[in-house]
């Protein structure tokens, strides 16, 4: 410890303002923590002695440990229950130092450096459709002759995006570490432009005529390309890029290409420009946060709510500057949430966060076209209902309504139901059926009101029960980890050298029959208990649902299913619904905080950092004051400094 104390003297000699406060934290940790977390013991792999002696407390590796320290201290998880708990004053020593060091900068809020963002594959395809006025994805409605679960041509041409630390594929840090697939982008743009060239309506919208003459004056060609790049580059202006596009057209014409072909080639060059592939913003190289321009706000708004480029109305309001007016912005949010394009919130955000996108993306979960589509749509429609009818976000845990499909083989007693919708039903727009052959087309799930111990919310939906199971059997640990991560915001990392669950079926020569007993034996080690006391109750609480989401009361060996458990705080339950009740009563705050953090991270394209905490706290306070309404969260995120401002240097 002398080495640590010398370090504080050294920091103080350099004039670091936080040295005295850190000395208080070190004294507290020496008295209460270092007996288990010094350089020799390192219980749980945590070496607080090394952390306290580090020269740079804000280095990435050190900051990660400080985040862990701050979390377990605030939650009262450390010291462990067998030891005397920290007093409120003790906790304040850690929390106040952490806030002054990692949350605020010179006592002021900050938003952190704003990263450059690239269009994801999902965003790119949507943007090409809106830019070129062509359909590049299969229609959402499908018949047995036109399966909907097959990827589109562009999805086969473009590589899938990997999620970043934020949990989403639009994570700017993850994109920065990935090489830009230029050749695949080129092939994708060629395909999209070919589809455009074959569509008379699309050509008329962009060229002003269905068929271009063999001789086109340069002034008209330049005007077409200028209008195209203005939309493609979404308000970003760059004279050098524009000159490259125009020269590409001239070279093609000099080589005797027809005007239409020369325009298509120049358009491809415009699409390959960074101004199309990236979401460009003006950089001032300022340390203090500043508000983005109206056109940049329009882009942030459209890619958050629609996952595509702004439409003409949004562009016009940005060009005039009116979008920066509070009343105009509020009206645009309403208009955009009333649009079919809001499907992106359910499909892209919720599909990634909750993981139900795997129902259509991962063939491991495939059963048949209608079953998979029905399972997927039940969750998709449920999430969109939160937006459409401005439902409380806590409905995701439990609700007296669900969407029920005809194809999953799961039936829940309940009658038809409808909320007083705030926005339009976008799925009617997506599911137009030809008259006379209705029976050949897939029937979407319907909204019903229920009063059931078996269903309600998303966490007991067929889709979630399926993606959290092994192919042919349930996996309580996977389900428990899913609930901890996706609902409570607590991410766990699997320890090394985990023995198979089957190795715990015998204890002292006696064969264990009940899954709960097997899991208890499997996680009996002290190092396992710290995590499994949180995992196991949640996972076992869902055992009444088989791998395909059907309700069961016995296993195939006729042993009874037990869905009871006890949370670490002592709250017990004996049914899935009772477990949900405990979640809503005892864990409401972390559930709301996690929901707000996930949507904020998706909206700004990066993982959240400690300096985002003041914004998250304001979002949670607004939600609590307004009945946890979904659209209160959406509007709060759009009004936040992280969304409306940028900061060029941290």
Question: Any key phrases for this structure?
Answer:
single chain; 650 residues; mainly alpha; three-stranded antiparallel beta sheet; two-stranded antiparallel ribbon
Span between termini = 32 Å
**Radius of gyration, taken over Cα atoms and rounded to an integer in Å:** 28 Å
Count of DSSP E strands?
11
Shape designation: globular
Q: How are the strands of the biggest sheet laid out side by side?
A: 4-6-5
Query: What structural class results from the helix and strand content?
Result: mainly alpha
Q: Helical residue percent?
A: 40-55%
Low confidence ranges: 8-17
Number of helices: 31
Mean pLDDT, as a whole number? 87
Instruction: Profile the largest sheet.
Output: 3 strands, antiparallel
User: Beta-strand percentage?
Assistant: under 5%
Description:
The structure is a single chain. This protein has 650 residues and is mainly α. The protein contains 31 helices and 11 strands. The strands form 5 sheets. The protein has a 3-stranded antiparallel β-sheet with strand order 4-6-5. A hairpin with a 5-residue loop joins strand 9 (565-566) and strand 10 (572-573). Helix 24 packs across helix 26 (526-540). The protein is globular.
What's the arrangement of secondary structure elements?
Layout: H1 2-13, H2 19-32, H3 34-37, H4 48-53, H5 60-75, H6 88-103, E1 117-118, H7 121-132, H8 153-157, H9 172-176, H10 182-197, H11 200-207, H12 218-232, H13 239-254, H14 259-271, H15 274-277, E2 278-279, E3 290-291, H16 294-305, H17 312-320, H18 326-337, H19 343-354, H20 358-361, H21 369-388, E4 401-404, E5 414-416, H22 426-430, E6 446-450, H23 462-467, H24 476-487, E7 506-507, E8 510-511, H25 515-522, H26 526-540, E9 565-566, E10 572-573, H27 576-586, H28 588-604, H29 613-625, H30 630-639, H31 641-644, E11 645-646
